[in-house]
Amino acid sequence: MKTKLSLLALCIAGFSCTSAMAATDPAQLEQAIAKQEAELNKLKHDLAELAAQQKMQLKQQEEQAEVVATARKELTESKWNKFSFKSYGSMTYTSDEYYQNVQDTSPERRGRFDLERIVTEFGYQFNDEWDMEVEIEYEHGGTGTALEYDGFDEFGEFETEVEAGGEVMIEKAELRYRPSDEFGVKFGNIHLPIGLSSILHKPDQYLTVLRHRSEAAMLPAVWNEMGVGIFGEMANFHYQAQVVSGLNSEYFRTYDWIASGHQKRFESVNADDLAYALRLDYGNFKKGSAVGVAYYYGNTTGNRHKSNKVSGDGTVSILAISGAFVQGPWILRGQYLNGTLSDADGITQANKTTPGLKPGNFAQVGSESEAFFVEAGVDLSHFTSIPVTVFANIDYSNPLADVDTGTASKRYENTWTSIGINYFPIAEIVIKAEAGRQQVAVSSIPDTNFFALGVGYQFSL
Amino acid sequence: MKQLKYSAVAIALISTLAACGGSGSDDTTPPPTDDKFEFAATEMITNLTDDVIISGYSTLAIKGEEMFLASQTLVANKTQANLLAAQEAWKAARQPWEQGESHIFGPVDSLGIDPHLDSWPLNTTDLKTVLTNNSGFSADTIKGWNDDVQGFHTMEYLLFGDGVADNQKDVADLSMSEAEYLMGLSEVFRDYTKTLDDSWLISHDGQTGKAYGELVKNPGTADNTFYASQVGVIQELVNGMIGIVDEVGNGKIADPFGTSAATADTSKVESQYSWNSLTDFSDNIIGVRNVYQGELTGASDKQGIIDFVKAGDEALALRVSSEIDDAIIKIQAIKGSNNMPFRQAIADAEGRGRIQTAVDALSKLQASLESDVVPLLNKWKV
Question: From residue A174, how far is each of A226, B7, B219 by CA, in Å?
């Protein structure tokens, strides 16, 4: 383009030169004029051609811009853009000592591999306010059994079906409406904010190889229920309040208190007794430092399949106090849980005498339960080039802290102390090792040592 | 492409259905009728229900009551004679219970009575805590505790001691709290044995349901959701026999027996405190004989499973009969000439030889029941 314009300028310049010299001979002049006319015509023609070319280029540019705009528009409107996918998982190897039976006091060692869990999380943002999230968890490699209560068979029977539920399950399926940071509503199958594992359950969010054992011996792990909740944040305060399906006391057991009363074993959830959960945090546990308090309250008798076996409500109340300090290389997290259960004796008695329920030796349920953990770590990458965090941990749980009558056995009072490391070869992967000691609060049962290795990942698209 | 896939799926479905249809029709094709036999089972079922099962449970309930009385007497008057009497009462209750393990179906299972009465092993650690921290044990309180600190074996431990060196206990070694706990335990024990007896005689669920005995005796009636036919009842009885033969041979004996004297594990021996193990085991198989013969040992001949087997295969009936007797004899022979208890025999070279002989006899019996007696159910012309 530029060269053509220069050429034109040169021609014009040349033309003016020749005309200045050419006034002497008319024939020559005529010839020169004719020549100049011819040249002028040629120039006119060139100019027209140039204009046409410019016009076409402009048109092409416009077309191109249009294509880009359309692509941009399509991109922002794309459904894929509103879709999110996350996944996390872990595999562990543990070497524990165990006892053959309740009389045995010489433990045997057993190594175990476990494809602990693979979790996939699908999200979709319908618009600025509405979104949904579905979390599917495959535990221990998948498949499992579901329990069914068949009220028409004989005099009502519990039946186990190797068919559905169990170890492949929907851990979360919620719809959220969030018009502002201060207020949001979620409903469906939602996580209860009781227990830090519900908030910090990805492998890089806790230091131990297995999730905290203290919590698992008292509460459903990553507790989810059907219900509705409100949530939001104001000036670094985070709140949650929920109304959710309650527990079923038919499955309360000595060794994990109310944890197995979580109705995930059934195809449908009995919802005659609802429960209420509240949580208030200052700070954000997922992002770092925070302190928080949570409370759960709910009756359980109404959710029994044989609801006439217990006369009281079987009220469960749980108080959870938690804190985290994460600053520079320092990590310190802890939680204290205290729970009470009313009518514990009635529930024990009913579970022992409900045909087919078979709690065996684990019918006795604590009227009080207690657990805590503290984990502390130092991220060495702040001091060296190695992305390693070293940690120490203590877990304590006593699901049978107190009973309505008689003396509570101390057999279920456990303390785990351990030290270990977390190594992050890349940010999304963590390799863990932990060694520790388990103490049962019965003097005749010897302490045992355990060792655990684990690898975990997490990513989001 | 899509159509091709659909066709492939359709073909797969059709062939699967066809395969199912094929195998289904095979099942319904009646086998040749000439090898079928006839047998009228009503009398046998009635007899087994009343004279073997219910009679056994009634005896257990009576022995349970006697055990409770013996422990009351012991608490009131702690003498060696009263301790011995309580030990005998325990053994007397043990007999009908162990014999009854050959038919451990129905309420004993559905009401969860088995673990309440016979949980094993005993949780001695918790038991010691219970004894240290409590006194004046009421039956209601004990019922709320876990099964591993109550039932037969807890009473056994309190009555006979730890069983390591001997099965004699000096009454001076029986503390007052042990005696009181024993009394509370035997009251709970008595209540459960009565519940079990009532469930067969009065109501299977302790509420409005029919007596379980009536349900067994009257299969196929409209309101009987337990047994649709006599075949089902006989199957339940035969499977009960197989179950206990398997448990004695492959569980109760084999678990503590191990692969060698070095791997033998006394802690797994049932009734190790009283040294009653061999009596337990032989009573288990005597229970099998009761169901098979149709009468308790020494009673006059009545119809039992043997009569059903005889109708189908006379030689088999006699063979099973002698295999049952042989297994009982071989179990009893484990004690040898010097009356060696089972917990000692598993660590003794000759004892181990005798145990192996008994296990072999039990395996032989189990094989006959599983592969020869069970198939007769298909040949029975109902």
Answer: 9, 39, 51
